[in-house]
Amino acid sequence: NEALNGGGTLFVQKHPNLRVRVVHGNTLTAAVILNEIPKDVKEVFLTGATSKLGRAIALYLCRRGIRVL
Fold first, then answer.
1. Are 53 and 29 in contact (CB under 8 A)?
2. First-to-last CA distance in the chain?
3. Structural domain count, the chain
4. Torsion of the alpha carbons at 44, 47, 48 and 54, rounded to the nearest 10
5. SUPFAM superfamilies attached here (predicted)?
6. Residue 33 belongs to domain spanning
7. Given Cys at both, which of 7, 32, 49, 58 links 2, Cβ 3.0 to 4.6 Å?
């Protein structure tokens, strides 16, 4: 919860010497979704494209030359 821990910033401040990337919520979800789309896909049907996460995924796919329906 971003309101609870600042999206991971409290963890990073508490452990500054750890060399890890903090990924949570929407960022992690988007990474998993994009990683699961086969490289040879030419178009996808995306629902929820008006949400913050859906829009980011749709724009990324368009930049990769994938047609988003």
1. yes
2. 31
3. 1
4. -10
5. NAD(P)-binding Rossmann-fold domains
6. 2-68
7. 7
